[in-house]
Amino acid sequence: MADNQAIGLSPCTTPGTMCVLGIDLGTTSVKAALVMETEQGRIVTQSCSRETQAQADSPAAGAQGKEQDVQKIIKALNECLAAFPQEHLQRVSRIGISGQMHGVVFWKTNQGCKWTKSGTGHTFQPGEVSHLITWQDSRCSSSFLSSLPQPQSHLSLATGFGCATIYCPDFMKPYDAAGTIHDYVVAMLCDLERPLMSVQNAASWGYFNSRSKSWNTEILRESGFPLDLLPEVGDPGDIAGRMPHDWHGIPKGTEVGIALGDFQCSVYSCMTERTDAVLNISTSAQLTVPMPLGFQPPETPDSLSAVAYFPYFDGNYLAVAASLNGGNVLATFVDMLARWMAELGYEVLESSVYTQMINAALAQNATRLSICPTVFGERHMPEQLASVTSITASDLSLGHVTRALCHGIIQNLHSMLPFQHLKEAGVKRILGSGSALSRNEVLKQEVEKIFPFPVIYGKDVDAAMGAAMVMLHRR
Q: 41 burial class (0-12, 13-18, 19+ CB within 10 angstroms)?
């Protein structure tokens, strides 16, 4: 579904104003936003989102594989940009791009895409490109990961991380370049001979030392890792290059930033004070607080720690409880209910199921039912499964179960980064963001019960906005 909205009196067409295009290539959708900074503040002149519906079969990994069709991702991106007025796109002077971290896509150098010209300018379609293997991929078992060399990094290696995936046999043989999906788009737009990756995305791949801003090349070389697939690395906010031709009417020569992490961009779009914590619940869920200025992460990873330190901007770090279980848990529950109904001979729309279960939970303020929602495990506890306890005959209604599930999602985050730790870090409020949180009043209620801080829900909290803001603020 498109979300295409103009705000104000077409300020991007005002002479002398800088207009920046922000793009986020998310797990389930692509979003684009045209943003400018005025004396009155930041203005979003246009925004558009498209569901990618890019999930693809993984013959090599079966049910453990989580892959996406790059053709469908780029199709959604092209549809977003085609929805914008040409006079706005022609004023764009910079492009900021973020996307889902950890994953990897492979392509052939100089054959990664095919450019074509239409009435509104040039567009590109993927060429010799693999599927995107996403952060949700679980083909790397715990035993396989334990057989790999220990990284010289503060972040532990996990299944779904780019370097772990590259270690899997027979993956990259036809290809000679690799990056995240947003690294790929930047490389195609700037016609880069070799991919360029930000510190944020490099850290999310594993085997990267964020202190020295370098890959663990010696460790990787000794274990037979194909080093030529590692992108060059730059600082977030730097320019990757300029477009050698126009794109959807955006002028030739437009600056394109190094691709950024979607999580960091979401935080950047809303965190205004160092006393803010940010809670984001979309497909997955993250709770984060800024670390003190000058903080440096430990030299070696703590595989049992639920909190990781993500590179942010200007050499700073975020402490992050990054859960694999967020909106995807609710989506799994909705899918289960719809399948049960189908087995009973009733066909229902999943959107209808979602609405009814949230309404039922809103009428049920509390429940004794307890649900541990870790259907997808956690990176620090990959073998952990979901469970339901304290089951009584009186607590089996749809409202009870949905209330318990929403409580469990928030309680799981609290177990990773408790309220007391936030208080000790000086947190004064929580900024809530993400599609799964914004549309779910039950989740909001549970957040406010479990984390007794003021909670602010922002409308403009998203990665596309953050990516544009990074490029706007760059000098």
A: exposed
Task: Work out whether strand 429-433 and strand 276-281 pair parallel, antiparallel, or are unpaired.
Answer: parallel
Q: Please state, in angstroms and rounded to a whole number, the distance separating the CA atoms of residues 423 and 445.
A: 20
What ranges in 12-141 are assigned the alpha helix state H?
Answer: 70-82, 86-89
Q: How far is the CA of 402 from the CAs of 12, 191, 457, in angstroms? A: 44, 48, 22
| The residue to which tokens 């809670």 are assigned | 279
pLDDT digits (tens, 9 = 90+) for 140-173: 998 999 999 999 999 989 999 999 999 986 666 7
Separation of alpha carbons 84 and 82, rounded Å:
6
pLDDT for the residue numbered 58? 87
108 CB-side CA count, 13 A: 8
With contact defined as beta carbons under 8 Å apart, do 180 and 240 qualify?
no
Question: Which position has the higher pLDDT, 288 or 384?
Answer: 288
Asked whether 32 and 19 are in contact (CB, 8 A), the reply is no
For 66, 113, 131, 191, 277, the CA distances from 188, given in Å and listed in that order, are: 24, 7, 16, 5, 35
**Per residue in 366-412, pLDDT tens?**
999 999 999 999 988 888 899 999 999 999 999 999 999 999 999 99
Gap between the Cα atoms of 455 and 449, Å rounded: 11
Helix (H) or strand (E) holding 181: helix 181-190
> Of the candidates 62, 49, 53, which has an alpha carbon nearest to the alpha carbon of residue 3?
49
CA-based nearest residue to 153, from 264, 288, 303, 298? 298
pLDDT at 440 > cutoff 90:
yes
CB 201 within 8 A of CB 101: yes
Q: Bridge-partner residues for 44, per DSSP?
A: 35
Residue with the two structure tokens 């619940």: 281
Identity at 154, one-letter amino acid code: H
Using a 10 angstrom Cβ sphere, with 0-12 exposed, 13-18 middle and 19 or more buried, the burial of residue 93 is middle
Give 41-66 pLDDT, tens digit per residue.
788 999 999 999 999 998 888 888 99
Beta bridge partners of 250: 247
Residue 129 CA: distances (Å) to CA of 47, 67, 91, 174, 234: 28, 13, 31, 9, 23
DSSP-based three-state secondary structure for 156 = coil
What is the rounded distance in angstroms from the CA atom of residue 432 to the CA atom of residue 445?
12
Q: How far apart are CA 414 and CA 252, in angstroms?
A: 48
pLDDT range class, residue 6, cuts 50, 70, 90: very low
Structure tokens at 412: 């799981």
- Examine the pLDDT at 7 and tell me if it is beyond 50: no
Q: pTM for the complete prediction?
A: 0.87
Helix (H) or strand (E) holding 354: helix 350-362
Distance, CA of 343 to CA of 336 (rounded, Å):
11
